[in-house]
Structures are given as structure tokens and as C-alpha cells.
Design goal:
There is one protein chain. About 30% of the residues lie in helices and about 20% in strands. It is an alpha+beta fold. The N and C termini lie far apart (about 55 Å).
């Protein structure tokens, strides 16, 4: 069983344990949606982390935040390439 009080590091923690139904759907608890400010209808990007080609972690990022992340990561690189 997962102990919600046992964290692997300071940056991540188990926020909730959810079940997957027959259709592959999960419900994020209201408390977590409120804490993350996730509203109905918002798009979420699901990012996977793999270990030896086996998915070991799934993370969700608000789709609207991805463009900002890409600009932050690739913007300086693009400027260096243009020089």
C-alpha cells in the first residue's frame, strides 16, 4: 500500500490514490483539483517518464502552460542558433 506521508523527495509527493474504471477513466479528487486550480473543460497534457522502455511515471501539465515552458526552454537555444 502507498503511504501518502512517505515522499521520495521534497519536490514530489503522493497527493491521492485513484482507481481506474473499466473505461480507463479516473477521477481527480476535488481537493486536488482545487489545489491545482483545475477547472472543468481544461485540457491537460499527460507526460510519461520511462525506465527501460516501461512507463514508470505519469504527470499532468495544463496544456496552456506548455507553450510557456517550450518558449522558456527553447527560446534561448533558438537565439543561440540564429547568431
Amino acid at each position: 500500500m502507498i503511504d501518502k506521508n512517505e515522499n521520495c523527495c521534497d519536490c514530489c509527493k503522493v497527493e491521492a490514490v485513484v482507481s481506474v474504471d473499466e473505461r480507463g477513466q479516473m477521477v481527480l479528487p476535488k481537493e486536488l483539483r482545487d489545489k491545482a486550480n483545475i477547472k472543468a473543460g481544461e485540457k491537460m497534457a499527460v507526460v510519461s517518464l520511462s525506465n527501460n522502455e516501461k512507463v514508470s511515471c505519469l504527470a499532468m501539465i495544463k496544456a496552456e502552460e506548455i507553450s510557456g515552458m517550450v518558449k522558456t526552454l527553447l527560446g534561448p537555444l533558438a537565439k543561440d542558433l540564429i547568431k
